[in-house]
Each structure stands twice: as structure tokens, then as C-alpha cells.
Amino acid sequence: MGFYESADSGATVLPVSYTEWEERAKEKLAAGPFGYVNGAAGAGDTMKANVDAFKQYRIRPRICRDISKRSLDISLFGSKYPVPFLFAPIGVNSIVHADAEVAPAKSAASLGIPYILSNVSTTPMEKVAEAMGDAPRWFQLYPPVNQDLTKSFLNRAEKAGFSAIVVTIDSTLLGWRETDLRNSFLPFLTGEGMGNYFTDPVFLSMLDEPPEQNLQAACKKALSEGNNTGFSWKDLEFIKKETKLPVLLKGLTHPDDALLAVEHGADGIIVSNHGGRQLDGAIATLEALPSVCEAVEHKVPVLMDSGIRRGADIIKALALGASAVLVGRPYIYGLAVAGETGVKAVMENLIAETELQMAICGRKSISEIDKSLVVKV
What we know:
- The chain is of the alpha/beta class.
- The protein has helices spanning 18-28, 31-38, 45-53, 102-111, 125-132, 147-159, 178-183, 201-205, 215-226, 233-242, 255-263, 285-296, 311-319, 329-360, and strands at 57-59, 74-76, 79-81, 85-87, 115-117, 137-141, 165-168, 247-252, 268-271, 302-304, 324-327, 374-376.
- The strands form 3 sheets. It has an 8-stranded parallel beta sheet with strand order 4-11-10-9-8-7-6-5.
- Helix 11 (255-263) crosses helix 12 (285-296) and helix 13 packs across helix 14 (329-360).
- The longest helix has 32 residues, at 329-360.
- The radius of gyration is 20 Å and the shape is globular.
């Protein structure tokens, strides 16, 4: 069985809830690809904690407020966006749909929502940029060991019209993912997710043979560059010096690390535990969010991902201090079920649900959402 099946939805009624999208994706995908997207580290306790953390807060709405005119607009780094969430960077989209990263990129462009392209995309960044036109897009960087390769990725991203760099630092080693081990599934070893490496002149110059002649060696070299276990704060400073774009640091949950990130030049922070895919038994991102926001004292935007499933989750995260959130697994399930159409449906539903949640809370704009909106139970 292949990675994916035909995703032509035809007249089929698309799912609405997250659970339905997940179930349909499981029906459509082979065990390896579904397990890769759906799985987590170890016993899955961190992924469960991410979701359960939202249940520890309850929304306390206000009434008799004029909510006839509403706006979900936010501003980040001088740009205005229509909703308080972005597409999270997710690699190897080709394992769930033939259109790979182009499908969610086009969906993002049509909605005006920033799309964060994964460093390990199967489609090279230039092709994604071409598909998006002038629509907003950020580039995720798994910082390579080779600094010349780092510079090349940054330069390409700038030239391709990406407007921010998301440096992800919580996966310099892959977590213990039992589902992938059971399925013997690591798509990178077959060339999936290598689009940016295999089109990079610096990376190609590092190989003894081109990828088409020795695919395994090229894949292993790319993986060794991504497993940058020596990455430190001085390397973040190096990245800052090499790009004119805002640099966000993704993958921290400790307030002391947030302070260090700002001290070493980060323009933004993304509180994240990689969707529970890296460290089993870790703190949930929503649990970590308030202390991180308190530590940085609004000096830089603080975004959050991991566990976002519904509009209520988005409202709660914003109330606890997030400037915006990142949405991951929901749109990938939409991609698996119905390609670009599925991704857009997932995000349109999330937009509608978030606006309704905000309005019924008695708020008419994102700026009116604060910690008084939620209570911990």
C-alpha cells in the first residue's frame, strides 16, 4: 500500500470536528504515514497533557456587551493578519498527499493566514513560494551543523519572500517514537522531506555523489546536519547576524530559557514541546505559557503550539498571554482526507468557531481577550 490514496472528495460530505477528520485520515492513510502524524514520544503522555491542559481552564463570559462588529485581526512584526493563528511547520507532507506542502500553502494563501514551511518539506521552498504568490509565509529552520548551509538556507528563504525565520531547537535528536519504530517508518531515509536539502548548492557540494546516484548517503548526510546536538545560544546569535528577518525561537517551555532567548536576540518565542513528539512526560505548553509570558514581560511576541484543536483552545491560549497560536495536526488530517480542499475546510471551520467563541464570550476583538476571561479549575 502506498503512502496515500486518491483524495478527491467529490460530493463526499467533509468532516467537521477534529475527531472526525482524524478518523477519516486513519481510514485513508497507510499505517506508517498515519502513525507518523498521529504518534507521540513514549507513552504519549506529553501529547495527552497538551490536550488535557485546556480542560483545566474554563471560560467565564460577560454579557450585555455590543458584539455586532467583530474582528479576529492581529499584528505581528509590523504585519496585520486576519486571524490569531498560523499554520504550524509540519514536514514530509508528501507522505499524506501527493500535493505535499503546496496544498496547505495554497490554502493558507487563499485565507491570508501565514504558512510556516517546514525545513524538512518534500517541496523546495522556492516552489512553495511560487505557489503562494505574495501571501505571507515564514520558514522554519532546523539549524544545520554546517554554518555555510545555515547561511544558504537563510539566503534562499529571504530571496523567496519568506518574512520570518522560526528556529526550532527541541528536536536536535528524534524522540523515542514507538509507533514509528513498530511500523519501521522513517520517511527521510527514502528521500521524503529532503526538498530543501537536495536543491541547495552548499549541501550538494558536501556530497561525494549527487542524491540521484546515492540516495541513502544523501539522506543520511541531511539527517546528520539536522541532528545539531551542539546548538547553543551563540549559534542563535550567528543566525540573527546572518538574516534581516525576524527570528523566532521555537521549542522552549521554561521561563529561564525565554529570558535567555530574548537576551541572545530572539525577536519572538514559540512555546512548544513539538506536539508531544519529542519528550515523554513533559510539561504541557498551556501550562508553561503564563510563566514564559511573565518572564519576557511583553518584550517580544509569545506564540504557542501543541494541543490546539478547537476555537475554545485558541481563546484560552490568548487569554493566558499568547500573541497567537500555531495549528498543526488538524490541517494535516484535512490534507490527508481531501487535499487542499480539506485543509481549507479545517481552517475555515476553525476561523468560524473562534469568532463565535470570542463573540459569545462578550469580546469583539482579540485585544479584548485577557486573563480575566478564564478561571482555572
